[in-house]
Write the structure tokens for this entry.
Amino acid sequence: MDKNTNPAPLVERFSKYIKIDSVLDIGCGDGRDAVFLARKGFKVTAIDTRQKAIDAAKELAKNNGVTVNFLLKDVREYVFPKNHYQAIIALNSLFFLRKKDFYAAINNIKKSLASGGIAIISSFTINDSMFDKIRAENEKVGKGEFKSGDEQHFWYFLEHNELSRFFDDFEILFHKETLTQDIGHPGWPEPHNHAVARIVIKKN
């Protein structure tokens, strides 16, 4: 497999438990998870708000000979079909929402999963090194919630165990809150830590 299609570890680990059918990737980025699943025979819809990401993802799919329904779409505007998807993936993408929109997205994910479907979700917690940085540079609008001065950007940091509490009525297959090392990236080139909550749930 091309290294550019290496999926997130949780996507690779739990893909064998997903029924081959429709899946949704929220905030697909460069398309690695979407293309990985398409190669396995899943019918993949993948959304992102950035045209550059969608273009790169389409190129990756083309180079791997698979078809993915890539859409330039905000999760807040996406129409979630009820009881439809066998899997929904949202890896660190819901973080860029207001709290109310984060909660709405989680509720849409729960409603849109088919019976037996799996959701794989991760987001940053209040222990993340970005918390103080974003708090210092932006306006606080609620606990763990911030917005930029031009109100074009939002961030919501989860509290401890908050992610798991969304899914009290689901089977939790995996849940872990960990610190991970980031070597740096555009906008923050220095090495830093991330505090990430990850969960995999099944709708029974």
